[in-house]
Structure formats: C-alpha cells, structure tokens
Amino acid sequence: MRFRKKLFFKTLLALPLLLALSGCVYLRLLEAKHQLADFERNFRVQVTNDYLHLDFLNPVILSEDFRYLTKLHPSRIEKLPHGYRWYLDFHQIDNHGQPGKTIVFGMTFNGKDKLSGWDFSPVFLEIAPATFLEASIRSLGHGKVDQGRRQLKVDPEDLPKVSTPPPNRHRILEVLGTPGQEYVKDGMTAYVYHFKAEALPVGEEDENRRIAVAKLYFNPVTDELIKMSSRFVGLKIAIDYRKLTQPSEPG
Fold first, then answer.
1. Cα–Cα distance measured from residue 79 to residue 66, given in angstroms and rounded to the nearest whole number
2. How many CA atoms lie within 13 A of 152 on its CB side?
3. Has residue 125 been placed in a domain?
4. Which one, of 5, 7, 36, 3, lies nearest residue 151 by Cα?
5. Of 227, 226, 216, the residue nearest 181 (C-alpha)
6. 3-state secondary structure (DSSP) of residue 153
7. 56, 91, 155, 214: which is deepest, by most CB within 10 A?
8. What PROSITE patterns does the entry give (predicted)?
9. How many domains is the chain built from?
10. Residue 235 placed within a domain
C-alpha cells in the first residue's frame, strides 16, 4: 500500500487561515478560503506586462483585516476612481553594495474597503513563476484547516500539475545577484536573499515584520529550483516545484 503523505502548503493567502484568529476577521478569511474551492466563479487570473493579477470577484477581506494580519502600513497609496490601491515595496538589502531589486505587492480595495485584487510584480515571479503561483493558489481550495497545528493541509493528489519547467539557478543569479547566504542542505544548494519593506510598522513591536527572507533550494546537478520558501510581512509562500511539475514522458 502506498503511503500517502500530506503536504503542508503555506502561501500568501493561506497563512491567515493558520492563525488562531477569532471574530469577524477569522470568518471573512474562512469565507475567502471556501471561495477558492470554486475558483472560476470567485477569482480571475491575468498575466500582463510580466505581472500576475489575481482578481477577487466576490471580495470579503477588508483593508483593516490586511493591516491587522501584516502589522504594516502600506508603502504608498494610489487613489482609484472606485477605491484605492496599497503597495508594499520590499528592497533587496544583501546586494553587496550594488543596487538591489525591489519586490512589489499591490493590493486593490474597492469602494467598500474590500480586497478586490492582488498584483505580484515581475521580480517575485522570477522565483515563483505565474503558472506555479496560480496552481498553488488554486490548490488551497481543496485544503483542510488544522487549527491545532496552525496549518493548511493539501493532499498531494489534489495539487494541479503544470508542464512549465521550474526556474533555473543561473536565471536567479542574473536577476537577484549573489545571495546573502549560500549553503548545502539535504543535498540541495540553498540561496538566501533578504529584503526590507519600505513601510511603517503598526506598532514598535512589529518592526521585524519589515524584514523579508526568500530561501531557494536548487538541484546541484540540473540547477533547477526545487523548493522556494519565503516570508513577507509575516505571511508565507512556499512552493515545492517537484509536487507541481508534470513528469516528463519517456521518450
């Protein structure tokens, strides 16, 4: 009998569900998780100008929910005809004296202060390509919340498969440069990059939320990215590319 492992899949949209929240905030986040199970009805994904746009067609999460979860104020705010857009800018800080890259997340809120869109910038999509990121987000609708362990469990068989090859180590070096740390773990080559948010923390005790870390694990033989684990504003996104990649047909 084949042993079925459970994949603990953390993403930017998942972590709030893993926290011990109470009251209306938790209920709204739980409703967003339920919406993911009917993805086509509740969400739309567009990739334009190297950005991935995730549209929330039936928004439920409030701007104050987002501030409560991230513990950060936005870097800047753009007024829109029917709402506004928050930006969180993360500047690379371990770039060895050279100008570093900036990862930008854009959150659009409608006139009722509800999250109606989330934009992922090109630099972030270099480490989490659009096809893999979309597949990861879609899989969350099939997950089960384990409140005791504060995790969202997704069975590997419920993960969609993609044919796109994962990112390559040489491309990552071209985009982000030499990592702040490099080491070997479990036979994989690990790169660690650090970023800092250009944003004010909600409270003095939240200053650490400004620091973001992206850990990338590569196959030392093929140089393909095997796993990506990152933490931005206290929220996590982790992708195991082996779980999402369509096996090559023998040939």
1. 18
2. 26
3. yes
4. 7
5. 216
6. strand
7. 214
8. PROKAR_LIPOPROTEIN
9. 1
10. yes
Instruction: Please indicate, yes or no, if residue 250 is contained in any of the structural domains.
Output: no
Sign of the CA dihedral 173, 128, 236, 77? positive
CA distances from 44 to 68, 118, 236 (A): 25, 11, 22
pTM of model > 0.70: yes
Closest CA to 11 of 169, 208, 193, 238: 238
Residue 251 lies in a domain: no
pLDDT digit string (tens) for 31-67? 988 999 999 999 999 998 889 999 999 999 999 998 8
226-251, pLDDT tens digit by residue?
A: 999 998 866 788 888 988 876 555 44
Q: What tokens does 77 get? A: 């705010």
CA distances from 175 to 100, 127, 139, 164, 204 (A): 9, 10, 28, 19, 33
Backbone angles phi, psi at 48, to 5 degrees: -135, 140
Q: What angle is formed at CA 8 by the lines to CA 179 and CA 202, rounded to 5 degrees?
A: 65
What is the tens place of the pLDDT at every residue in 4-30?
Answer: 444 444 444 444 344 444 468 778 888
